[in-house]
Specification:
Blueprint (H helix, E strand, L loop, with lengths): L4 E6 L5 H14 L4 E5 L4 H7 L5 H10 L1 E4 L13 H8 L4 E7 L12 E7 L9 E5 L2 E4 L5 H17 L4 E6 L7 H13 L6 E6 H10 L6 E4 L1 H14 L9 E3 L4 E3 L18 H14 L2 H17 L13 H10 L2
Parallel strand pairs: 1-2, 1-3, 3-12, 5-10, 8-9, 8-10
Antiparallel strand pairs: 4-5, 4-11, 6-7, 11-12
Helix pairs in contact: 1-9, 1-11, 5-6, 7-8, 9-10, 10-11
The structure holds adenosine-5'-triphosphate.
Adenosine-5'-triphosphate binds next to loops.
């Protein structure tokens, strides 16, 4: 086992603090030595410190290199920049990796889903360049650059290579967004030439959505600009049983922030109902990333056993267990 590590923990808001504390307890019970550098961010912090993402949070991640992040609410409308988006930009976490594979015990329409969504994380409509032209008109600028597009496509091919995957699909709407998605596609075609051992394919995002809900086993690695990646990864999460089990990671060349696909779920905040599995799977990945391999596998196996047994499940997975009962069952199975 590796030596003791300090890792930044952003407990987030909404269901974030509940699922963070469940995950920290499970990791502790697995015998992993982590000193959590707890950094709050979000709406309450904005009231207290004048910004939802204080510099101390960035500094902590820069120091520790790795963070586990629970969701932070992004209010719809004006006056609040998304903490998630800002963090990805500040730390140049250019790749958002969202694996979606069936988990035994979760009944879904398809049993052969094994897809990795590789989402570009720094530009596209997420650049947040919007302007109100007049009372009845607003515009948003979609930025796509060659540097960011080549970098993300290359990452997708590298991931395919390392994980013995066979196909990479570049996903765009290049028939309509001819210049922006056209550029992304041009980059994808260029990068694909470097990887003759991996099959390269292209698909339009609307067709992809239809194919995913009809025959998801056709797909392996998907690489997409930021907004399509956000939307499609919620769809693929749905294919394997929903947001409660959908993990994700934001990776850059220097830092990594592990965070689930789901948001802060304000509708179930404080009810002890949230499924901590997505954040736990992120933590498992994070433990592998920092070298705690044995503990990561132990936690992963305990989680999968609890889901397979099907006796103690949170309501999103069809059970009636609380967050604390579900995590206690995982600890029992470690
Ligand atoms: P964001 O835009 O921040 O991603 P969102 O609007 O997509 O957020 P979520 O917060 O992800 O919304 O929630 C979508 C639905 O999924 C809600 O009904 C929520 O209760 C449910 N949900 C999300 N995460 C979980 C979880 N961990 N456990 C149980 N239900 C969840």
């Amino acid at each position: 086992m590796s030596e003791r590590k300090t890792i930044t923990l952003i407990p987030g808001d909404g269901i974030g603090p509940e699922i963070s504390s469940a995950v920290c307890e499970i990791i502790k019970a697995a015998g992993v030595d982590i000193d959590w550098d707890i950094q709050t961010a979000g709406a309450d912090v904005a009231v207290a410190e004048g910004t939802p993402l204080p510099q101390r949070v960035i500094d902590s991640i820069k120091k520790n290199k790795v963070a586990l992040k629970a969701p932070v609410t992004t209010p719809i409308g004006k006056g609040f920049r998304s903490v998630n988006v800002a963090l990805r930009k500040e730390l140049d976490l250019f790749a958002n990796i969202r694996p979606c594979k069936n988990i035994e015990g979760i009944n879904t329409p398809f049993s052969d889903v094994d897809i990795v969504v590789v989402r570009e994380n720094t530009e596209d409509l997420y650049a947040g360049i919007e302007r109100q032209i007049d009372e009845n008109t607003a515009e948003s600028i979609k930025i796509i650059t060659r540097a960011a597009s080549e970098r993300i496509v290359d990452y997708a091919f590298q991931l395919a290579l390392k994980n013995s995957r066979k196909t990479v699909h570049a996903v765009t709407k290049a028939n309509i967004c001819k210049l922006t998605d056209g550029l992304f596609l041009d980059c994808a075609r260029n990068v694909a030439k470097k990887y003759p051992q991996i099959e390269y394919k292209e698909i339009l995002v609307d067709n992809l959505c239809m194919q995913l809900v009809q025959n998801p086993s056709r797909f392996d690695v998907l690489v997409l600009p930021n907004l399509y990646g956000d939307i499609v990864s919620d769809l693929t999460a749905g294919l394997i049983g929903g947001l409660g089990i959908a993990q994700g990671a934001n990776i850059g060349s220097e830092y990594a922030v592990f965070e689930p696909v789901h948001g802060s779920a304000p509708d179930i905040k404080g009810l002890n109902k949230a499924n901590p599995a997505a954040l736990l799977l992120c933590a498992v990945n994070m433990l592998k990333h920092v070298g705690f391999l044995d503990a990561a596998v132990k936690i992963e196996n305990a989680l999968y056993k609890v889901i397979k047994d099907g006796k103690v499940l949170t309501s999103d997975l069809g059970g009636d267990a609380s967050t604390t009962e579900f995590s206690a069952e995982i600890i029992f199975n470690l």
